[in-house]
Amino acid sequence: MTVTVKIPTPLRRLTGQKDKVLAEATDIAGVVEALEGQYPGMKARLCDENGALRHFVNIYLNGEDVRYLSGIETPVGDGDELSIVPAVAGGR
Questions:
Q1: Predicted TM-score (pTM) of this structure
Q2: Which end of the chain has the lower number of beta carbons within 10 A, N or C?
Q3: Which portions of the chain are predicted below pLDDT 50?
Q4: Degrees, nearest 5: CA angle 67-40-71
């Protein structure tokens, strides 16, 4: 399945400044692996050493937070859109 992945500004240095990339996969874990294959270093920014999504990274599949679906095992379909959104903290 071909998935469009929206890349946030902090990760664009890994993608050559591309704000959207394509990945072939059947689930979120596969998308992460596909991104790592195309853009080395991406997986370390998205997943911890156990392969789980980092707490400060939010991933949305067609607008739905994957943490409320099946997490990294959430299936993806052809034409789906995945958004990577780093958590924002700070301020008063």
A1: 0.91
A2: C
A3: none
A4: 10
